Amino acid sequence: MNPVTPSTGLLWVKRGFILFRQQPAEMLTLFFTYMFIVMGLGLIPIAGEFLPLMLIPVFSMSFMQACDQIENGVKVYPNLLMLGFRSEALGRLLTLGIFYVLAVALAIFVSSLVDGGALFDFLSSQKPIDPKEAPDERIFLGMLVAVLTYLLPLMAFWFAAPLIMWKKMSVGKALFYSFFSVKRAGKAFLLYGAAWMLIAGILPALVSVMIAVIFGDPIVVMLTMLPMSALLTTILYCSFYPTYLDIFGKPEISIQA
């Protein structure tokens, strides 16, 4: 594990934008294909409730590998999403996915102790959200508690998938190394997280206000914000790769789809 300075956290964000800029259409295609698959999985009765979450480690490696290919000048194609399913590490990645599901379930359970289950009801509700109705204030309390509860597991999950696939670690060892590498680079990750909170929070808010003032139509605002959300999410995914690169070095196994 390589040491990093706090300012490196800002460089991770910048390098995420640089990686995306090299193959923007390809990365957006990869992202939208992933979203289409996730929506399809969500239609499966019962299993659709947890499969998208369980498969996050498998699909996340597609984006990590895509960034590695961009750095190597290799074109990215949507079939890269099947990379994890063809890997010998699939079993370990699925095991990691089970831990994802358990960690999220724990976070929601803990939040229900303080919000009376308001967050769970909100997340599990099948009713369309009425923009005229203000969310129950308990939901925000539940979200805060859920995020704080999930923080420690997130540290363990952050590098776990690439360590499993690229370093061929066991699930336990990958979780251990991920947790302590994030802890060691804590200041850099704080800046990284703060930067993304500003980008994902302030920028969309400013754009939505400008669009609302110009057009005065909530539908136009929504149609503008959806592609912006997809764009920022894809760039966020691109910024995960530099965090691994600076701490663990260049992937030892470079697999092309």
Notable traits:
single chain; globular; mainly alpha; 257 residues
Write up this protein.
There is one protein chain. The protein contains 11 helices and no strands. The two termini are 28 Å apart. The model is unreliable at 128-134 (pLDDT under 50). Helix 1 (8-22) crosses helix 10, helix 4 (56-71) packs across helix 11 (218-248) and helix 8 crosses helix 9. It has 257 residues and is mostly helical.
Major sheet details: none
Q: Indicate the radius of gyration in whole angstroms.
A: 19 Å
Which residues form runs of ≥5 with pLDDT under 50? 128-134
How much of the sequence lies in strands comes to under 5%
Structural class label? mainly alpha
Q: Give the N-terminus to C-terminus distance in angstroms.
A: 28 Å
Question: How many strand elements?
Answer: 0
Taken in chain order, the helices and strands follow as: HHHHHHHHHHH
How confident is the prediction overall: mean pLDDT?
A: 88
Q: What share of residues is helical?
A: over 70%
Please report the number of helical segments.
11
Q: What is the overall shape?
A: globular
